[in-house]
Amino acid sequence: MKYCKKCGVLYTTDVCPKCGVIEPEQATPSEPVSGKDIRKRWITLALAIPAAILLITGVITLYFKLIH
């Protein structure tokens, strides 16, 4: 289903039934992503997930140490 950005109605046709706005054509990607950018994204992901887990674990540990 499509979502009208103007009035917020969900619809299945090409034109919004409530306000009559025609959905614009989807934009094509301008250029492909290089291998270097993909490698940077994977490295960032590989570092961000363990960092988030450590942060959550640290906050939980600190919380329980302050309680007791």
Short description:
With 68 residues, the protein is mainly alpha-helical. It contains 1 helix and 2 strands.
Helix content: 40-55%
Element string (H = helix, E = strand): EEH
Span between termini: 52 Å
What amount of the residues lies in strands? 5-15%
How many helices? The count is 1
Q: Outline the biggest β-sheet.
A: 2 strands, antiparallel
Radius of gyration: 23 Å
Number of strands: 2
Low-confidence stretches: none
- The strand order across the widest sheet is 1-2
Kindly name the structural category: mainly alpha
Mean pLDDT: 85
- Tertiary shape: flat
Keywords for this entry:
single chain, 68 residues, mainly alpha, two-stranded antiparallel sheet, 2 strands, 49% helix
